[in-house]
Amino acid sequence: MQRPPAEVRYADELARLRAADDAPTPPGWALSLRAARAFVVGDDALGVTRKFVGDPSLIDRALVSLATNRGLLLVGEPGTAKSLLSELLAAAVSGDSTLTVQGGAATTEDQIKYSWNYALLVSEGPSERSLVPAPLLRGMAEGRTVRFEEITRCPLEVQDCLLSPLSDRVLAVPELPGGAGMVFAKEGFNIIATANTRDRGVNDMSSALKRRFNFETVFPIADFDTELALVEAEAGALLRRSGVTVAPRRDVLEVLVTAFRELRTGRTARGDEMDRLSGVMSTAEAVAVAHAVGLRGWFLRGTAGSAADLASCLAGTAAKDNPEDLAKLRRYLEQHTGWRDGAQWRELRDARRELPGG
């Protein structure tokens, strides 16, 4: 698999946490709140790695929300690891992060709740055998955490199908007779939803649905060294999986992270104002660019990616959202890199001539 789910990638760590877990555990949970927190933020004594870079108090609040009868909604800019955090929380709480709904304009209630095997439906009518459970029904029946990615990309009427499961903890299947027509949530069931604050095509949530969620904002990484270390580790892992045997150059990664932070905030390291890019210059995007830089250098020349490779890959990031961003990137390379020390900055500045439209 290109990317196994968290419960598979970190199966050994989850097993160690379960074996050492002697704290009180909420009904239906695979781990206690303490052990689930350690799975996300790390525990050196048990050899558990840190998987999410952010405020640990956010993890505490998220876990407490999941232990209540209110859902958890993670909001923030794209690329702040909301989806990763929801996956880690689901793996820690339920041991399964795969009960996932991917929200979008074409998402229907059938994809969220249940559908039917129409061959069986025609031959024998509505029955439990012809019912095809979707993630929400399975999560309620099995007492597991359901993940709802990009909930605000779904139409409002589709979002509101969560009202009864979140408030009454019951899902009605009116086609089935008797008691089979009501699915009551078992202990351990809850919903983790994510929503971006910047993407176009977003539908607002109804007030009724908002009241059934606790909102937590996931912010970008504030510290430069922390972001650099994360980009280096994640890009290195991606490059190894792609067959690249040389590590990414740290000086190039420093340039990359610096450029992303300055283009994201509209201010250079020495305080100069500059044009902000309208595109998403997130940490996740920086990892993707670092991966592309490494691939470009290795497969085209057999070396680690250079600053010139970085300029070409930055162009693809800048041009994807707004054509004017490419001109802003070119001005940044012309005006705000000349005063910096280092051959990598000079190489990046000189490579601006290779940008599209240059």
Automatic annotation (TrEMBL):
Supply the Pfam families for this chain.
AAA_5
Q: Which ranges does the record mark as transmembrane?
A: none
Give residue ranges for domain ATPase dynein-related AAA.
71-213
Q: Report the protein name in the record.
A: AAA family ATPase
